Amino acid sequence: MSPYLAAEDLSMFGHDPWWLVVIKAVFCFAFLMVTVLFSIVWERKVVAWMQLRIGPNRHGPWGMLQSLADGVKLMLKEDVIVKRADKVVYVLAPIVAAIPAFMAIAVIPFGPAGNEISIFGHRTTMQLTDLPIALLYILAVASVGIYGIVLAGWSSGSTYPLLGGLRSCAQMISYEIAMGAAFASVFLYSGSMSTSAIVEQQHDRWYIVLLPVSFVIYIVTMVGETNRAPFDMPESEGDLVGGFNTEYSSIKFAMFMLAEYVNMVTVSAVSTTLFLGGWRAPWPISTVWEGANHGWWPMLWFVIKVQLLLFFFIWLRGTLPRVRYDQLMKLGWKVLIPVSVVWLMLVATVRALRNENYGFGDIALYVAGGVITLLVLSFVVDMFRGAKAKEDAQPAGEPAAFDPMGGGFPVPPLPGQTLPPVPRRRSRRERELIVSGGTDTVSDGTSDGKEASDG
Fold it and tell me: Does the pLDDT value for residue 294 go beyond 80?
């Protein structure tokens, strides 16, 4: 095996007693719920501070119980099911959207796998479980949540939720492609798809330094994946309706809101694991303190990194305006996907050369040669394309008349085309004169039927 490939040792997983598995699962669930409650209050406080407002200050000390009060209020509100809804799918949709949001946290390491902790006398890892294909598992459960959004829009029996659900589905699918390419760059470089092995591979240098393009791509895609500002397209009709969840109320609406914030925590935890060293202490602390990555301390570093990424979500919402839908899709399909694919090919080339024991200078030479070749080819193609465009732009005679009904249905004119003049509609008096055989005195358009009768 190449020295650059990670040695997956998952033998420490899968041997915990059932009650310890339950405790760890409950801890993961509680960690997500508490982080969500805190994040909602924190978001409202930070946005209020950015907008020179007070923010929540009524429930609990410093308003810290505001999100809990909102949850209780939503549970006590009337649960309405619209008349034309498909009731079974209508009820299942928020559940399908919420449950996958909790599942990805199962493979996220809160601490080193080799440094086990003691819980009621049993030694166990600070991770619920790990898989040889943990990254594929994360992508799979993230994709299932899309079904909840689509089914919510369709089952409501209303037009606006259906359009909002389709728009959200297209957005999430578009950004998942670039996200998958960013994941592929990570496990190509680390040689493993196990989350604990990926964190172990960052013992000397985090992947945010080695794979900066993958990190930037993932940061953008995780904002689009969670439907957060400035990519909050489900709420783009905020003056009328709220998108796919327009017809929902009470606890069902709360589950959609919960799924959004849990997804924020989950993608932040995944980003921390893949690019920010996971549970590892940051550089100054890890060098001066040997015990920084032992015991319960790794969980502290992990939580701090997750909270910093959540603050990034909040900062985006309070800073950037919402983009148009065409700008959102153009960014996903024409920018992120091509860049992520090219970067993935570059990472694969570098890893293949390093596995063949090529030196850094040789790798840099090969990569630079390939980049220069691509730039020269693109320049030549653009030059020929520009010459062809100039030839096509030259007038070749009288342009064909524009027919607005040429395709069988009305279409707007293209640039350079004009609509034919609309014939003036005859007045009622003029039509009566023509039918009765009288003189058409308004054929020149200078008078109407009234003037003709007065004459």
Answer: yes
Under 8 Å CB-to-CB from 252, ≥6 apart: which residues?
A: 79, 91, 94
Other beta carbons within 10 angstroms of residue 265's beta carbon come to 28
* Domain limits for position 82: 18-324
| Phi, psi of 391, deg, nearest 5 | -65, -40
Closest CA to 271 of 322, 204, 202, 329: 202
Tell me which H or E stretch contains 123. strand 122-124
* Residues 6+ away with beta carbon under 8 Å from 141: 100, 103, 104
| Cα→Cα distances 453→284, 372, 431, 439, 443, Å | 98, 82, 13, 10, 14
Nearest to 110 by CA among 300, 314, 325: 300
Q: For the chain, what is the domain count?
A: 1
Give the dihedral sign, CA 43/314/221/153.
Answer: positive
Which residues fall within 8 angstroms of residue 92, CB to CB, at 6 or more apart?
151
Residue 226 in tokens: 């969670």
- Residue 175: closest CA among 238, 263, 109: 263
H/E stretch holding 100 reads helix 87-103
Q: How far apart are CA 82 and CA 89, in angstroms?
A: 12
163 located within any domain: yes
Confidence of residue 397 (pLDDT cuts 50, 70, 90): low
Q: Identify the pLDDT of residue 396.
A: 53
- pLDDT beyond 80 at 407: no
Q: Which pair of structure tokens corresponds to residue 435?
A: 């039918």
Q: Report if residue 257 sits inside a domain.
A: yes
Residue 437, Ramachandran bin (φ over 0: left; ψ between -120 and 50: alpha; else beta): left
Compute the distance between CA of residue 200 and CA of residue 213 in angstroms, rounded to an integer: 21
Whether 172 is in a domain gets the answer yes
Only one residue has tokens 């914030």, namely 261
Structure tokens at 98: 């919420």
Write down the pTM of the prediction.
0.79
What one-letter code names the amino acid at 118?
S
pLDDT single digits (tens) 151-191: 999 998 888 888 888 888 888 888 999 999 999 999 888 88
pLDDT of 315-327, one tens digit each?
Answer: 999 998 888 888 8
Note whether residue 143 is domain-resident. Answer: yes
pLDDT at 422 over 80: no
